[in-house]
Amino acid sequence: MAERRRERPIGPALDRSLIDRARNGDLDAFEAIVRARMDAVYRLTNAILGDEADARDAAQETFVLAWRELPRLRDSEKFEAWLQRIAVNAARMTLRARGRRRVREIPSSQVDALAGHVATDDPAGADAARLGAALERLDVDQRAILVLHHLDGRPLAELATILDIPVGTAKSRLFAARRALEQALRADEADG
Amino acid sequence: MNDDRRPTDWPDDRLAGAFRARAEAHPTPSDLAAATVERIRRMPRISPIRDRFVRLGGLVAAAVVVAIVAVALVARPTAGPIGSAGPTTFGLPVLSVNDALAIRDSGVDDREIAVHGFLGGLAQVSCPYTPEPSNPTELRCPELNIWLMSAPESLVTHNGNSMTMHGPTGPALNPGLALVDMTGLFPETEAATPIGFIGHFDDRRADSCAVDVRHTCADTFIVDRIDRGTVQTVTFRDLDRADQAVQTDSEIDSLITRVDPTLRILSRRVVAIKRLPSTEPVYQATPSGTPSYVSSAAWVVTALSPVDASGRAIARTFVIFDGTDLISEITRNGPVQVTLGVATPPSPGTASTSTQSPSLGPTASPTPAESGQATLSTLLAAPITVSQAIDHRDNHLDDTELAVAGYWIDRSGQLRCAYAVHRSPVEPGCQWRWLTVVPPVDWTNSSEPDQPALAPILDGRAFVDPAIADGITTGVSVVALGHFDDPRAALCDPLRVESCRRNFIVDAILDPARRWPAGTASAPGLSCAGLPIADCAAAAIAVLGSVRTDQGFPAAIEIGAGVWCPTPGLLFANTSCPAGGQPPAGGGQWIGYALVSFTDTSAQAYFNIAKSGLVVQATAVAIATPPPSLVVHVEDTEHVLIGTRSLTIAESARLDWARIVDPAGTATADIAEVPGRPGDIAVRWTAPACQPSLNVVGHGNGVMPREVAVLPVAPTTGCSGPDHEWTVVLEFRDPIRAPLVEILSLSGG
Question: Which domains are seen in chain A, by residue range?
Answer without folding.
Answer: 14-102 (1.10.1740.10), 118-192 (1.10.10.10)
